[in-house]
Amino acid sequence: MLRFALNVSLTMRERPWLERFETAARLGFGVVEFWWPDGVDLATLARYIRDTGLQVALVNLPAGNLAQGERGCLNHPERQHEWRAAVPPALTFAQQIGCPRMNALVGKLLPDEARETQLARVRDNLAWLCEQAAAAGIEIVVEALNAWENEGYLLTTTAQTLAMLDSVGAPNLRYQYDCYHMQLMEGNITRTIRQHINRIGHIQVADVPDRHQPGTGELRFPFILQAIASSGYTGYIGLEFVPRGDLAACLDWLPANRRDPIDPAQLRWVE
Q1: CATH number at residue 111
Q2: pLDDT reading at 38 higher than 60
Q3: pLDDT tens, 201-210?
Q4: Pick the catalytic residue: 143, 151, 186, 218?
Q5: Which of 243, 235, 191, 234 is closest to 214 using CA atoms?
Q6: Could you tell me which of 170, 148, 147, 175 has the C-alpha nearest to residue 159?
Q7: In a domain, 271, yes or no
């Protein structure tokens, strides 16, 4: 069985924040995920999410200015105080909305410092973050991003990311596996899922090459989603795609009730 969460950041980029949650509920979802809501009053947002009755599977930790290309700053020597100061209120917000998991983007390579020095700083920051998160009852996940759209990002493969997690060794630190990013970087989607399912804390999907909804590109999603269901994965699959067309129509491959677990056989693919 499969459980889906709608990413209200990427699928509804032009909608006001509060409207996104109402829309997700109207589309039949009971669970959402989203990037850090910069510029939004967190108390108001938390109250609104609770009022909608939606659950939250994942929230990204603050990661800098995404529109300007930033992808975290755990490696940046001059932004350590800024980032660490942002963590406690982020964890508090996650607790308020009942979110069990937060994604930490690690940052892009800085040109004037050795890569290993930056990776060591990332390790230190992840270890500190996991201690703070464990006290709040929250799991931390780290993902690899594709280098085509995120030039210089420090973790771009499964092997690099798992090596980083191993070096930190925190029990509440796991791998966020994004099928879109990893198809671009290394392929072997189902083999990787089967091999590392015990390390994976969250899965996200979008089709390749244009990051639209499943069924619009080269990935064979009936096979991939069946593999996820067969792997024993019990977490949510984040629908983190850029809609090609009307969002409701982009979700036609799912049954109307997206709140309950879904058998892969119920998915309606257009041949």
Answers
A1: 3.20.20.150
A2: yes
A3: 999 999 999 9
A4: 143
A5: 243
A6: 175
A7: no
237: left (phi over 0), alpha (psi -120 to 50) or beta: beta
Q: How many CB atoms lie within 10 A of CB 194?
A: 14
Give yes or no for residue 271 having a pLDDT over 60: no
CA dihedral 127, 129, 134, 135 (to 10 degrees): 120
Return the residue matching tokens 């950041």.
Answer: 9
Residues facing 32 on adjacent strands: 6, 56
Considering the chain, what percentage of its residues have pLDDT values greater than 70? 99
When divided into structural domains, the chain yields a total of: 1
> What confidence score (pLDDT) does residue 269 get?
84
240 belongs to the catalytic site: yes
Is the pTM above the cut of 0.85? yes
- Could you tell me if 102 and 71 are in contact, meaning their C-beta atoms sit under 8 angstroms apart? no
Calpha distance 201→178 (Å, rounded): 11
From the list 22, 113, 240, 271, the catalytic residue is 240
Tokens at 92, concatenated: 């508090």
* Dihedral, CA of residue 161, residue 163, residue 164 and residue 168, to nearest 10: 140
Give me the domain span that covers residue 19: 4-266
